[in-house]
Specification:
Blueprint lengths: L1 H16 L20 H30 L22 H7 L1 H28 L3 H34 L22 H4 L5 H29 L6
Helix pairs in contact: 2-5, 2-7, 4-5, 4-7
């Protein structure tokens, strides 16, 4: 085990020491830029996830105030990601291990790509133009961010594999294994109403908060000592 881990840890230390302060980051190391380090990738996906969660929280609050200003909408939500098992607190997330936690993050992000695209299309067609002209732009931004963040986490996962931090099978997730097809039927058919919009935004705000927190925990368990 020592023989296996020593080269990996050495490479990881070199990775952290090769930061470039002002040069632009690029994927293939062209002249004038540098290949992003693992710490760089973690920082970027964490910042992106925090921004995505912030926008989703704002949109959920705006939607709730506009459509349900006097109703107390407490009850069970129809979250289509109910089948993805997620740790419910920091301690359980830390016990889950890097590979399992990475899989959970990728599954959550993969499960939200199509529903958020459908939400944007539904809101842009909605007759409540005084609200949806502005809010649908936010929904479109969130939809784009989900795809961008999943791509960023996938790149980060590949970098972690290079250092032997993750196994090579991590991230090999088939689309059909993400969520039950029945849970997505109303989304794929575009059968939305205001309560469906609210439930979707509520569930996405919850899941985006999980992704944000899991990424921070994953960074601290992979690169301890860096803002942890």
């Amino acid at each position: 085990m020592k023989n296996v881990w020593f080269p990996s840890l050495t490479l990881l230390c070199l990775e952290l020491s090769m930061r470039v302060g002002t040069a632009p980051i690029c994927a293939y190391g062209q002249t004038g830029c540098h290949v992003p380090t693992l710490a760089d990738l973690f920082d970027r996906v964490i910042q992106q996830s925090s921004r995505m969660h912030g926008i989703s929280s704002d949109l959920h609050s705006e939607f709730e105030q506009y459509f349900f200003p006097s109703k107390n909408l407490i009850g069970k939500r129809k979250c289509h990601t109910y089948g993805i098992l997620t740790p419910d607190d920091k301690e359980n997330a830390q016990r889950l291990g890097r590979e399992q936690l990475t899989e959970v993050i990728l599954r959550l992000l993969g499960a939200w790509g199509d529903p958020m695209s459908q939400l944007y299309q539904s809101m842009s067609r909605d007759q409540n133009q005084d609200f949806n002209h502005y809010s649908s732009n936010k929904a479109l931004e969130i939809s784009d961010m989900v795809h961008e963040l999943r791509d960023g986490v996938a790149k980060m996962t590949e970098k972690m594999k290079q250092f032997g931090v993750l196994g090579n099978t991590v991230g090999n997730i088939s689309p059909e294994s993400l969520v039950p097809s029945s849970a997505l039927s109303s989304y794929t058919q575009g059968e939305f109403n205001s309560l469906d919009h609210h439930d979707l935004l509520y569930c996405f705000r919850r899941d985006s908060n999980k992704v944000k927190n899991y990424l921070r925990i994953l960074k601290c368990t992979t690169l301890p000592g860096l803002d942890c």
